[in-house]
Amino acid sequence: MIHFGLHVSRAMFARVAFAACSRSAQCCTYVRSCSRTVFTLGPSRGAVLRSLSSDVFENLALEDWLHNNLDLSEEGHALLLWQNAPVVVMGRHQNPWKECNVGLLREKGIRLARRRSGGGTVYHDLGNLNITFFTSRKRYDRARNLQLVCSALKAVSPRLDVCATDRFDLLLNGDFKVSGTAAKLGRTSAYHHCTLLSNTDRRALSAVLKSPYQGISSNATRSVPSPVMNLTDQDPALSCELLITAIAQQYAHQYCLEPSIALLDPTDENTLPGIRSTTQEMLSWEWVFGKTPKFDVSVSLKVADAIVTLCMNVKNGIIDTCSLELPATWPYWEAGAELQSLLTGSRFCAGDAKLLSSSLLRSCPQTDGVQDRWRDLCEQVASLM
Length: 385
Prior knowledge:
Blueprint lengths: L9 H6 L13 E4 L4 E4 L5 E6 L4 H14 L7 E6 L4 E4 L5 H4 L2 H7 L2 E4 L7 E3 L3 E9 L5 H15 L5 E3 L5 E3 L3 E4 L1 E5 L3 E9 L4 H7 L7 E3 L12 H4 L5 H16 L6 E3 L10 H9 L1 H4 L6 E9 L2 E10 L2 E8 L9 H9 L6 H14 L6 H14 L2
Helix pairs in contact: 2-9, 5-8, 11-12, 12-13
């Protein structure tokens, strides 16, 4: 374990590397009962933790596991620092097709995840730092947490103009968002987590968080777009590693903890019993897409010189009802009822729609461009998903 002093220079921050207490986080102890494993935080009642993973589903599972198993009674508290490979993460009650470009994510191989917490959709990559504050519900305080982050930033970059807003975002120079906030409040425990943009790919962020989908009607929570900036645009020294060190130091100083970081492996079932099943749940289609609040789709599709109207009602990610209106002069018109039937009861998923329509296309006449028209229509339907 390497300790850090309470007053160190920027150069020292950049050089310090924190060793793990161990892969099982010896700053915590745990006891097993018949119902669950409870991590206790030791005499100091606090801990600074860092995930060894950059997999979003493993990290979300770790966050959920700690929320459910940390002993946060008697003023217990913990800080978790974590980073993800490129991913779009939406809030618990959001519609992915309203929040991001799902097709572009598939094309670029960028993952899509749904959090347990509310709030808006964000883009993560290794140029972004995620920070989670765990407390009892009684001691939950977002303003205090963000002030801690601001203090840590100013400790290493005194001229940095960064402050918290009434919406619990962090703004740089009064205009540019560098951090967004979300939270989960349990019966007795809570967590508040936020992003911190060090050197994220802003071009990718802008591209994937722009929805191209039209005709969707939903009561799902909507994100509030904001101009963003990286901290390194203002001070090139503010790398994620420097931020981790600064925030860990500030947290330890504020809560009188031993200045060390414990590393956690979110795939370690022995230390974190049951976490694998949580990870599998977090990456499942049923969670990522199936938890989307119900929504309707109503669009007019231009196919050659004709307009086709498609209406769908989607519940739990499944197409509950489907209505397809074809012009009277549409070739092989009777196949419209078959396409409606195929889509009804299927997942609102481009891959499923393409697979289902392939059988219909095989039965289409290949003369007079009939099959081409149906293929164009089926491709447009799939592109809505």
